[in-house]
Design brief:
498 residues; alpha/beta; Rossmann fold; pyruvate-formate lyase- activating enzyme; 5-stranded mixed beta barrel; 20% strand; globular; binds iron/sulfur cluster
Length: 498
């Protein structure tokens, strides 16, 4: 399966966008295909070379880590139905677009992709081959039947809460039905999803995602997530623990817990009491062989003392926290319905840094939210100067249909947004470089994840999630080694083994 990260964010609050090598993706995502390459692949589609009858699925993933996880789980569900994943759309019998609704004009981009796929499907039909097309994810949830109406080549539309029903949907589509599965399922999809076998997990790499929470009840006024992913739902401790142990047994060394509001996770613990994410992390940290834990994305309002305490106590919990604020202005935060102030956020940062002094902070910013004044923007610049993020993601506000922000009549002019964004990004970049420079000369633990670009190189992640390039033997993938950082690259660090 190829996974193309067209854009990345766990939630609408974190409009993350990361270039190659600069992101937060574990090595489980071993192939990142460019959109241009995908288009070329589609245009050149031809029958499978081997002419075999094995059914193959090509999954194209847009968006956040949660979609990456979902794509893997859809592939797991399909493997039990006889499908093998393929990296080549030309070989596919089933082409699945796992879509994201965060970015501007997300639906239109999917429709134009479907236009290209229509040509491919036609070419294959002329050659006597059948291609089934499915649209999954948040655009599927938001558009539903409209996708079939506008793109009749689509056979299946399936929302994020129902993808465990994919094999049945395919069976219905094979009989000629146009299937739309966007109702929120009563059953727990995770209970109905098969687990991948060890070989599949091992192929995905030593760092894995594990979704523990889905949905959002916060209703930030710029964000579509509550409408596409539904209310906050937490998976049970038992489910999460079992899945984590299975990943570790297959060679995973690092797990990143995922959720649109991951730190809103809660559930009944083994002791019968209600647990929050801090207690869950403590439980998972006891798994032998699991060396590193991370989680993303967090909301400041759900950062409780137990979670901060986990950062203090758990060495396996990496000293990196993605904690979006979006704006440094109280009036903009209020307009965004963030329900916390700048002071609340800074106080929180202070407590977190006290608990874990070496923690690196990451954030998200939206500039030019409707009504944002010059002074509001200067407040954001002051906040950034105060916090000094190790990494941050920033975007111009763009309206999402159906959200309260989109309905406002005080939108900011594009050129003003652009100027503000440029200034903000220059400052964020300055801090990111300063943080990276501060790493030079340090000896750190590096989890070796995958081969680098040049022979003899491996790429790993620092505790602060930076990609680190080191000369090492491929047999060391999965090892945590001591390295000394020697220099910085554009979005990475270079190191020598010590
Ligand atoms: S509405 Fe929920 S998912 Fe969207 S930005 Fe706000 S907290 Fe995040």
């Amino acid at each position: 399966m190829r996974i193309e990260i067209v854009n990345s964010s766990v939630s609408g609050q974190c409009a993350l966008k990361q270039g190659a090598g600069g992101g937060i993706f574990p090595s489980g995502i071993d192939l990142i295909q460019t959109r241009a390459q995908m288009n070329t692949d589609i245009a050149n589609a031809a029958p499978a070379a081997d002419g075999s009858n094995t059914r193959k699925v090509y999954v194209k993933t847009y968006g956040c880590q949660m979609n990456v996880y979902d794509s893997e789980r859809m592939a797991d569900a399909l493997s039990k139905d006889g499908y093998q994943t393929t990296d080549n759309p030309q070989d596919a019998d089933l082409l699945l677009l796992n879509t994201c609704h965060i970015r501007e004009k997300a639906a239109e981009k999917v429709y134009s992709e479907l236009g290209r796929i229509r040509q491919m499907k036609q070419t294959l039909a002329e050659q006597g081959r059948e291609l089934m097309v499915g649209v999954a994810g948040c655009v599927a949830q938001a558009e539903g039947q409209e996708i079939i109406r506008r793109a009749p080549i689509v056979d299946i539309v399936i929302g994020p809460q129902t993808y465990h029903r994919l094999p049945q949907a395919i069976a219905r589509a094979r009989k000629g039905e146009k299937v739309v599965e966007t109702e929120y399922a009563i059953e727990d999809k995770f209970e109905h999803l098969p687990q991948p076998d060890r070989k599949v997990i091992a192929k995905r790499g030593v760092s894995a995602f594990l979704t523990v929470q889905e949905g959002c009840d916060k209703f930030c006024t710029f964000c579509v997530v509550p409408y596409t992913r539904g209310s906050e739902v937490s998976r049970s401790v038992a489910q999460i623990d079992t899945e984590a142990r299975m990943l570790v047994a297959a060679g995973v060394r690092e797990i990143t817990l995922l959720g649109q509001n991951v730190n809103a996770w809660h559930g009944q613990g083994n002791d019968g009491t209600e647990w929050g994410l801090g207690a869950l992390l403590r439980q998972l940290s006891q798994i032998d062989g699991l060396e590193r834990l991370r989680y993303t994305t967090s909301h400041p309002r759900d950062m409780d003392d137990a979670l901060i305490g986990a950062h203090h106590d758990l060495q396996k919990l990496m000293p990196y926290l993605h904690l979006p604020i979006q704006s440094g202005s109280n009036s903009v935060l209020k307009a965004m319905n963030r329900r916390h102030t700048v002071k609340d956020y800074l106080d929180l940062i202070g407590r977190i840094r006290q608990a874990r002094p070496d923690i690196a902070l990451s954030g998200d910013f939206i500039v030019g939210f409707p009504g944002e004044t010059d002074e509001d923007f200067e407040d954001t610049m002051r906040l950034v100067e105060t916090v000094r993020y190790a990494q941050a993601f920033s975007f111009k506000y763009s309206p999402r249909p159906g959200t309260p922000g989109a309905e406002r009549d005080d939108h900011i002019a594009e050129d003003v947004k652009s100027q503000r964004l440029q200034r903000l990004q220059a400052l964020l970049r300055e801090h990111q470089i300063a943080f990276a420079d501060g790493c030079v000369g340090q000896t750190i633990d590096l989890l070796l994840e995958k081969p680098g670009r040049d022979p003899g190189q491996l790429i790993g992640r620092s505790p602060w999630l930076q990609p680190v390039i080191v000369n090492a033997n491929p047999s060391q993938i999965g090892d945590i080694v001591k390295v000394r950082i020697t220099r910085t690259g554009t979005n990475s660090l270079y190191a020598d083994c010590v």
